[in-house]
Amino acid sequence: MNKKGFTLIELVITIIIIAILSGFAVMYYDKFIERMRIAEVDTVIATALPAQERNFLKFQRYTPYWNQLDAAPIQVRTAKEHNDYANGKDNTVFFTRGGILTGIPNPGFAISFEQDATERWFLVARRVGKGGYTYQIVRPFDSQESVCVPNWSSEKDLEICMEYMGVTTTSELQGNPMVPKLPAK
Questions:
Q1: Cα separation, 95 vs 97, whole angstroms
Q2: Beta-bridge partners for 128
Q3: Residues 91, 76: contact at Cβ < 8 Å?
Q4: Per residue in 47-105, pLDDT tens?
Q5: Are 52 and 114 a contacting pair, CB within 8 Å?
Q6: What is the DSSP letter of 1?
Q7: DSSP string of 89-137, one letter each residue
Q8: How many Å apart are CA 134 and CA 105, to the nearest integer?
Q9: What angle do CA 22, 28, 33 make, to 5 degrees?
Q10: Who wins on pLDDT, 25 or 146?
Q11: pLDDT computed for residue 80 by the predictor
Q12: Confidence grade of residue 160 (pLDDT, cut at 50, 70, 90)
């Protein structure tokens, strides 16, 4: 007698293998998407900081407003009925994924220009929305390097910041450049 088909054990083993592979795929997909979001922030930084420098040359000051820059993102330049960037009051934060539609930010970054207590300027990209990430990308205007600042209690933040900064241990991560360092004793 010649039986064709799979046994129950073969089917169960196949399902277990597919579940394990799917788990790895989801984990790597999540990191891939996060890397793409970071690449988008790096592009905004590469556009916004030279625009801030041109603004400084014209007016002798930096601006917290996106619509005052000559190279603002397309969402800022587009005149729409509900464009928060067009009114000049609420355009200090640019959202990379369309802002807040339902009271919860879309997964992406809220990017703003900020000053610290010493009046040093920074571009700050805070991770917002769903996905479990809460880190920031901080770029001082007077520096050529962006710094990933993790939420130290989040393993996902630590992993993505270590990858972004090109370090292998958390002790190699830099502190937030917006927080003044205490002088050495």
A1: 6
A2: 108
A3: yes
A4: 999 999 999 999 999 988 888 888 766 665 555 554 444 444 556 677 776 555 555 66
A5: no
A6: -
A7: SS-SEEETT--BSSSSBPSEEEEEEEE-TT--EEEEEEEESSSS---EE
A8: 12
A9: 120
A10: 146
A11: 52
A12: very high
